[in-house]
TrEMBL record:
This is Intraflagellar transport protein 22 homolog. One of its GO terms (molecular function) is GTP binding. Small GTPase-like component of the intraflagellar transport (IFT) complex B. It comes from the Eukaryota. Component of the IFT complex B, at least composed of IFT20, IFT22, IFT25, IFT27, IFT46, IFT52, TRAF3IP1/IFT54, IFT57, IFT74, IFT80, IFT81, and IFT88. Interacts with IFT88. Interacts with CFAP61. Keywords: GTP-binding, Nucleotide-binding. It comes from Muntiacus muntjak. GO terms for cellular component: cilium; intraciliary transport particle B. The lineage of its organism: Eukaryota, Metazoa, Chordata, Craniata, Vertebrata. Belongs to the small GTPase superfamily. Rab family. The keyword Protein transport does not apply.
Length: 178
């Protein structure tokens, strides 16, 4: 199994959830759970806040036996890869087949993030993904040059999760009634 170390997942997770701005490298062991709210994302029209948990998973193959448990109650999947690696295709495909194409995550919003580490340039090229992966939304994150872009995209992504959760609740209610 491929290990996606030092791509910047933790740095990005800390930035997006505003949990911390430490940039020292500390390999993620297993999973870190970041609980957060985003003031721009509310759960209904009345503006009630919404609590999220972001599970920052280091991708260590040693933790593979825990993946089914991690996926069980997930309502979204974010796959981060290093934008400066020319062909991360195999790796993205591997993570998608493990996490996204699983039966229980099929209706779950998935976001691919090409993370640009400082000094690695800001080439906005996209990997040529084969179907069905080319349907996944791909965004770029560059915290040095354009932190706004990924901040806005993350808000959109959180909103898509709220919509998907409320749609699946509606479907469940309909299936009870009919
Ligand atoms: N300043 C800065 N440093 C970054 C950024 N992205 C990655 N780095 C550097 O890369 C190192 C590794 O980033 P992490 O976020 O810890 O990598 P990771 O993907 O979580 O790695 P694992 O937990 O081992 O899988 C960081 O300690 C930083 O030194 C960034 O956007 N800004
Ligand atoms: Mg990490």
């Amino acid at each position: 199994m491929i290990k996606a170390e030092e791509y910047g997942k933790t740095i990005l997770a800390n930035f997006l959830t505003e949990v911390s701005d430490i940039t020292e490298y500390n390999p993620t062991q297993g999973v870190r759970i970041l609980a957060f709210e985003n003031p721009c994302v509310t759960s209904n029209n009345k503006g009630a806040g919404c609590e999220f948990e972001l599970w920052d998973h280091g991708g260590d193959p040693k933790s593979e036996s825990c993946w089914p448990d991690m996926m069980k109650d997930s309502q979204g999947v974010v796959i981060v890869f290093n934008a400066s690696i020319l062909s991360p295709l195999k790796e993205i495909e591997m993570w998608c087949s493990c996490f996204v194409q699983q039966q229980f995550l099929q209706n779950t919003p998935c976001q691919l993030i090409a993370h640009h580490k400082p000094g690695s340039g800001s080439d906005q090229g996209n990997p040529a993904l084969a179907p069905p992966l080319n349907k996944l939304k791909l965004v770029h994150s560059n915290l040095e040059d354009d932190p706004e872009e990924i901040t806005m995209e993350f808000i959109k992504y959180l909103r898509s999760i709220i919509n998907s959760v409320s749609e699946s609740k509606d479907r469940e209610e309909m299936s009870i009634i009919t």
